[in-house]
């Protein structure tokens, strides 16, 4: 009996951790199928042994994505989850259950988008708010972030919509946006998102809507909650949503039998790999709205709908060893070395294990038979272990405590998943990685040099940091393996040409942790010289748009190291641009004016408006203060910014007002009118 109790306790601990990773950290550490298997095992054990009942068991909870950073809103209509099926047999059981109690009926099948559920409230055809699922009853208000998603209408088209309705759907991240975002995160040494769903959830909870706008989220809508149905069937409801301006799935089919349902599932199980977004299954719904109402729902899920989860292609192979790699920021990434196995058309030999916690969760051991699948059909990952095949002599894997390259003791911050080597200037992979980053296309774009050449130059004592690049001469390179006279001349010439690269890209090239390409541009605009950046206080850095506490602290720590300061000085002496070049203005009509932008606009995006402000001599500010001259207000303006502006007497102008201002000069009558007007029309 003690063994049963131990098993139950173990499953509860594992599921609690998985729930925390998924709902709180937005960092799922197990596949849905594995999670459901563990939950089913725990449910069965608890049912068989009621003496071990616990009201705090994961089986008694509904997952929640609520966070303290957002205002919480109660759903007018509960937001339920869907039950999952994984086999044709389970689909047939679902249909048989429906038709046992009712006559034969139609089913509407659609793809299950792998994103994060959202509820959009509209009143009289106008967008009011967007709320996450939360715990099904209460969710987080993420309206400001959702307004940045261009496919979500702010004002409905057509006619016939209810005076009040909640439109339900999924916010997701297309593959293109996901790949771009993870490349950016890799550039600044941050952990890549595990999958598009995780990326969408994390993006939706950003505090800065400008960050959300850049990440390229999209949305698909599939349900309406109102006091009365908007159509007689689910399929007709989708048609109505399309007429009102919502983006709906194009992969929708009305099926009249379980065989037609399975044909739909089998077709998309193959064709889904061609889609520009992630889908992890199909949703089967009773088409009749009247029958949906009659069937009702359980406490967690509707009885008239179910999700079929596609099975990811998996392969079993043996884990030979685990290497721990060191990145340019010092981040340690464990990598599994596998017995070669064919998977999704390619041979897989290695797979990332992400971090120590992932290894612990899966209890992966050397010699195990492991299950490998490709995340998004691209990235190999280990998703499970065949415990029945585990060798009797196996022992738990002990994660390293010291850097495998330089021997320094590893550190781990409380809010970080990865361990880090702190020896930034003495650890070879970090040194080489930073130089490789410095020469990359988005940074200094020094052609002729690559990873292998940089490694070669480092091993021969010619490179110790980025500044050493400008000490290289042709005679240094010619004797080296794989480098001839012509290659050497090209390398030296391209290095010399890099001194013309703008200051913003130099900042990015330095590889300051968390300072990516976009942040570097913002910093260069707000702090236009390296000397000013070196001496900037934390408060001054936080004034820069998109610079938060973590980035500000990282910048300060970077320049607190005298070795970094000395290297920057050597780069300066080599001719590298350490100041922003003054951009030629179209006019000086906004010279000396400081402007804050808030909300969304009809004729221009916010980045376009910011550029116009700078081109006409003005300065962009991220927050309203007593130094602010104008608040450029659009739809959905931040209430705090509006309140602050009104309190401080800052002039509030609309997009039209702004365009009139830059259309003439300071003395033009229309400009003077705007300058004098304290309360122009906001929207």
Structure description:
The protein is α+β, with helices and mostly antiparallel strands. It has five domains: 59 residues, Helix hairpin bin (Helix Hairpins); 238 residues, DNA ligase/mRNA capping enzyme (D-amino Acid Aminotransferase, Chain A, domain 1, 2-Layer Sandwich), CATH 3.30.470.30; 76 residues, Beta Barrel (OB fold (Dihydrolipoamide Acetyltransferase, E2P)); 146 residues, 5' to 3' exonuclease, C-terminal subdomain (DNA polymerase, domain 1), CATH 1.10.150.20; 83 residues, BRCT domain (Rossmann fold), CATH 3.40.50.10190. Helices cover 37% and strands 18% of the residues. It is built from 25 helices and 20 strands. Helix 16 packs across helix 17.
| CATH 2nd-level architecture of the largest domain | 2-Layer Sandwich
| Class inferred from helices and paired strands | alpha+beta
Strand content: 15-25%
Q: Quick one: CATH superfamily of the largest domain?
A: DNA ligase/mRNA capping enzyme
Q: State the separation between the terminal residues, measured CA to CA.
A: 69 Å
If you average the pLDDT, what whole number results?
85
Tally of contiguous helical segments: 25
The tally of beta strands, per DSSP, is: 20
Biggest sheet record: 5 strands, mixed
The top level CATH class name of the largest domain: Alpha Beta
Tally of discrete structural domains = 5
Say what the CATH topology of the largest domain is.
D-amino Acid Aminotransferase, Chain A, domain 1
Low-confidence stretches: 665-683
The main sheet orders its strands as 2-11-10-3-9
Helix content: 25-40%
How big is the Rg? 29 Å
